[in-house]
Amino acid sequence: MSQSVTPATLDARQFRDTLGHYAAGITIVSGHEGGEPIGFTCQSFYSVSIEPPLVSFSVMKDSTTYPRIAADGKFAVNVLARDQLHISNQFARKGTDKWVGIQWLPAESGNPIIADTLMWVDCEIWSEYEAGDHLIVIGRVVAMSSPEWHRDEPLLYFKGAYRHLREVGGNC
């Protein structure tokens, strides 16, 4: 058995490095403000409920983009495909026009849906919860990509680096 760390000896870097051993998909949470698309890179996204259809993501409390999305009461989550690493990096930068060169179409709600993503969901904000230095946002899905939309494989983040799936055979 490996050595354990107690809360008294736990530090932020150790916590981040340990949890980095959990592979996560990369998404762009998007919305609009004054008719202009806005968004940010997010790796903390998951399904919450089937009935009603709910999803969730976590965002830093000091985000400057999320409050602008929340003001409209809705958002979209675009799950990036493995060849969209450049989009993840572009949306992770602060102080730049994140939408330069990005092809997108508006969902029925007006939220930006990025072209050629793995899949997307369009949501209304259901609730928010404070959790340490983050907000947990829960959205009710009002529209989503069709199965025909889905393509390729996801872009993943694991141990501090972008990764791709590799088939190992067999079923889980």
Kindly list the characteristics that best describe this protein.
mainly beta, Pnp Oxidase, Chain A, seven-stranded antiparallel sheet, 3 helices, 12 strands, globular
Please tell me about this protein's structure.
The relative contact order is 0.21. This protein has one domain (24-160): Electron Transport, Fmn-binding Protein, Chain A (Pnp Oxidase, Chain A, Roll). The protein has three helices and twelve strands; from the N terminus they run αβββββαβαββββββ. A hairpin with a 5-residue loop joins strand 7 (104-106) and strand 8. The strands form three sheets. Strands 3-2-6-9-10-5-4 form a seven-stranded antiparallel sheet. It has a three-stranded antiparallel sheet with strand order 1-11-12, with no helix packed on it. It has helices spanning 12-19, 66-70, 85-92, and strands at 24-25, 27-33, 36-42, 45-49, 54-60, 74-79, 104-106, 112-114, 119-131, 134-144, 156-158, 161-163. By secondary structure, it is mostly beta strands.
